[in-house]
Amino acid sequence: MRFHRRWAAALAAAALLTFGATSATSATAVPAVPGPGGLVVSYEPAETEAGLAEQQFLQQNEVLESAAAHANALIGLPRDIPLVAVSCDPPNAYWDPESQAILFCYEYAALFRGIFSERNTEGSPAEQARATDEDVIGVANSAVFHELAHALIQVYDLPATGREEDSADQLATLLLSEDSLHREYAISDIEAWGALAELSEQGDLSDKVSDVHALDSQRYYNAICWLYGSDPQTYDFVVLTEANPEGFLPESRAVGCPGEYAQMQKAWSTLLAPYLK
Ligand SMILES: [Zn+2]
After folding, report:
1. 46 C-alpha vs ligand 1 centroid, how far in Å?
2. How many other CB atoms are there within 10 angstroms of residue 131's CB atom?
3. pTM (2 decimals)?
4. Who's near 35: CB < 8 A, 6+ residues apart?
5. Confidence at residue 90, expressed as pLDDT on a 0 to 100 scale
6. Ligand 1 centre and the CA of 168: distance in Å?
7. pLDDT tens for residues 192-226?
8. How far is the CA of 144 from the centre of ligand 1 (A)?
9. Which residues 6+ apart lie within 8 Å of 14 measured at CB?
10. What average pLDDT does the chain have?
11. Where are the domains of the chain?
12. Ligand 1 centroid vs 142 CA: distance in angstroms?
């Protein structure tokens, strides 16, 4: 499932998407304007050794600040919503309706650092470490955008068009499709789902992750399908066909992916139309 390099090679050719620009099609939007608020990052002191290392990594690289800035540039919130980095056991990232905040656990980053460091085995030790850093950044961005979707659904009382977890994954994909940097993050996210699916099959995961989300390969294939659907010409190498036996997305699923992507883009653009900047 190691295909980051192939994905990365395709990025240069990828057409850039403009999630925000599609909002103009919503003529029936309720009269509203983007709120003045945004995600506001803060750091609680880490309580574990692994957590402390991730706290330093996140702060030095302004990982959460960058994710917040990307979201805040596109979407207005009715008020500031805290994005708080904390130590948690078990590791997680989640929207907390009680405190109206997104919590991102240092140990969640540490969990994925462990997973990716076992998979990033090409190049020098420094190159491997850098690849793992990039993957952790990618997963952190995806997690923040997924939890932002839960926050948006609640604070703007958005109607659900399906399973909320799927909607949240879809908004994360849309935000990750915005530019080439975030498309790199989407690839790290896909690889993370692939790794989790493998660990899950091995029965290795139950004590590591506590999460209401499905950890089966469904999210892995969804993420691939949607990124492929965002630009089928660029990502056609992912489709498994007789001519392309190295592909990994079944052709029967692939044919519907551009439609799935268009549909989720339309749904979220319509839902968020009043609040897009
Ligand atoms: Zn969720």
Report:
1. 23
2. 20
3. 0.87
4. 76, 77, 78, 79, 275
5. 87
6. 6
7. 988 888 887 777 655 555 454 555 678 889 999 99
8. 10
9. 180, 183, 231, 234
10. 86
11. 1-30+167-202+210-272, 34-158
12. 11
